[in-house]
Amino acid sequence: MKFFKKLKEKLFSTSSKIGSGLDEIIDSEVKDSKKMNQPNSILENVDSKVSEIDQSVSSSKTKNGQKLHNKKPERDKEKKPGFIRKILSSVDTISRRRRLDEKMLLDLEDLLIASDVGVSTSSLIVERIRKDNYSKELSVEELKRLISVEIFNIVKPSSGIPKYNDGKLNIWLFIGVNGSGKTTTIGKLAKQEKEKGRKVIVAAGDTFRAAAVDQLSIWSERSGIPMVKGEEKSDPASVVFKAIEKARNEGIDLLMIDTAGRLQNKTGLMEELEKIIRVIKKQDDTAPHNVILVLDATSGQNIHSQVDIFSKSAGVTGIIMNKLDGTAKGGVLVALADKFHLPIHCVGLGEKMDDLAPFDPKLFANAIVGLDQDIDE
To answer: Is 113 within 8 Å of 135 (Cβ atoms)?
Structure first.
């Protein structure tokens, strides 16, 4: 899985990644143990006391002024370390394991929350781990596997590709705020669908930004996919109506519609989106067949409000998560799956065509904690 090798390398490239965080959780206990036992300083004190005793003995004198000389047996010249010294020395080679106690569980929960897994979802994962593993001695690798399993169990029900109906025009509506990578995602996905043998057309419904139309035009030309557009500032709903007519007349399999990056607190823009949906339904009351919300992982917990409001106004049917390469907050995808139970269609890492891939819950769960298992499968 080339894409998920790349995902594993990039997913948590910044300081608060889960993988290194788990190392720190385990190592903190090891360091505390070493500090508490302080083997080096103890050994130094032992050596110092022994040296003082030797000096005292060697400097003592008999009553007639002659020094006493204690000749040690020859076998004592290479005396082996004593039992206590062996024990103290062994502390320095302590195994990198830590007992799962309340402090460790709290550290783990804090780490998950810091990675945008969310408070409720983090608590859920921690409680599940606590149930069967409390008081066990765990290594970093074992802890990673436990978390990976819990993340997989959360995201697995939410994985799935967009629904597609053979023999009819499929209409997919793409929504999301400015900067989420929506237009680029449409270009990539349109090319991938074309490579499956489907006849695809795109509609530039974001008439508010000339840059969005230009960007979609570049992807359209690059992929050889027809595009329908209108004048700048024209009615987006009219562009959508024209695109549906063209698609039907030309026997198109799939129409992908771009929309303006509507901020969820701008009522007028949300109403415009609802108008587009009404126009689509007049042409096909079963459409849009997919309403795909494109999200930016770097938005963190703000994503929750986006999903909530867009779901209410547009009936979101699935999610595409972009920019997982530029954040340590990819855990938000886990929180979304736990809270909204919406299908996660794809995840994106960058601007290249192969930087968008179908969501694989098992590989994602392993990559998010830094496990190598299954990455090459």
So the answer is: no
